[in-house]
Amino acid sequence: MKTRKIIKLYIYILFSILLTGFYACEDNPNEEPTCSIIFPINGDEIDGGDILTISVIANDPDGELSKISIIINGIQKSTCSGSPCQFNWDTSGENSGSYNITVTAYDNNGSSTNAETIVYIKYKPVADFILNNENISYISIMEGTSITFNDITTNNPTEWLWNFGDGASSTEQNPTHIYVNEGLFTVSLTASNSDGSGTKIKPDLIKVNKKVMNIPCPDSPTVTDKDGNVYKTVQIGSQCWMAENLRVGIPIDGSLDQTNNGIIEKYSYNNLITNCDIYGGLYQWDEMMQYNAPNDYESFGTIKGICPDGWHIPTSFEINLLISYLGGTEGDVGGKLKESGLSHWSAPNYGATNESGFTALPSGTRNEDGSFTELGEEFIMWSSQRIRNSSTIDNMGLSFDNPWYYAKMFPNSVNIGWAVRCIKDR
Questions:
Q1: Nearest to residue 70, comparing CAs of 87, 51, 91, 94?
Q2: N or C: which end of the chain has fewer CB atoms below 10 A?
């Protein structure tokens, strides 16, 4: 009897313990984890191509986190095993638009909590520009000079607003502007598309000086080459040019090519030294460059070549500045460069005024086969630059029968002999 009472007591105690545990479980259920996206903030705009760092903090108050999952627009991007959690999202290649970032924190009991935020990727234009297809930080020009502004903005702009600094503006993509007053001008470009806009400002980019030409260069009225030949000079805008064709060097027969032998060699038209005395020498391009040509098409006034000390072979950009200063695409620019009259030019020497004082003489051409042509009819001078991705050298030509300027584009033209005009270093 006593044994039965003891057994009943044990059963009661065990039942009480189980019942207490049951109610204890109901009073303390599993708590879900917490989860927060610290960055980015809902509604943030992201520049396309940037790296966006997504930062998450999560916690499980009554256990441990098993993982944190980061999903962007329904695509799993990353998981972390604990908190804090970060994921660097490279937005390169993503399209413009909204992106839903969903972060889910899981605990070790299988519960989870989500956090969401929306960001917007936008490809606003990154505005930038160059001048006359050259990447330069400063330019000095004369009144009346035209400058072409080349848009190099990225991210597909659709609208442009230029401020040229002198009160004028333009909405063209690549405008040309003529500066008519002297001063120092800051230029800005604002480029826009459906995602927004960007602005590029270049302070004190363009200095405009009073128009000057047809006078000797103030600090260098003459210049002397290594052979003792003395040349007149002419100031045209901000540039100081030789006013005569170069004639330095030892004459060789037109049937021979000039060579890299440490001696400056030249051709005299029809192998007559008297022609060289009047019209200057004719030089192959490599000889003129003294076999120091740049590896690519770009050369920024750094090639002295056969010019006197302090002078160099003109670049395409410098020739274009000369042309621009004299009126750019106006039809009579060539006439402003040619010596007037018929003392050296053949009739009709159309449009020749020599307004610039450049005094171009028709020095002709030494051809690849060693023959000579066009004396009295054509002036062609070399530049130091190749045409992009070609074997053709840029040049400037003038003719007796029109007032224009032009360039003769011959493949492998380096073997031709043309005139040389040097320009003073700045």
A1: 87
A2: N
- Domain span at residue 164 reads 129-209
pTM: 0.56
Q: Report the alpha-carbon angle 280-284-286, nearest 5.
A: 130
pLDDT digits (tens, 9 = 90+) for 250-291: 999 999 999 999 999 999 999 999 999 999 999 999 999 999
Q: Is residue 216 part of a domain?
A: no
In terms of domains, do 67 and 190 share one?
Answer: no
E strands, 108-182, in order = 112-122, 129-131, 139-142, 145-151, 159-163, 169-170, 176-179
- The amino acid at 384: S
- Domain boundary residue, one of 182, 209, 236: 209
The pLDDT value given to residue 390: 64
Contact status, residue 145 vs residue 237, Cβ threshold 8 Å = yes
244 and 346 assigned to the same domain: yes
pLDDT of residue 16: 47
Question: Could you tell me if 71 and 148 lie in one domain?
Answer: no
Question: Concatenated DSSP letters for 270-317?
Answer: GG-HHHHHHH--BB-HHHHTTT---SSS---S---TTSPTTEEPPPHH
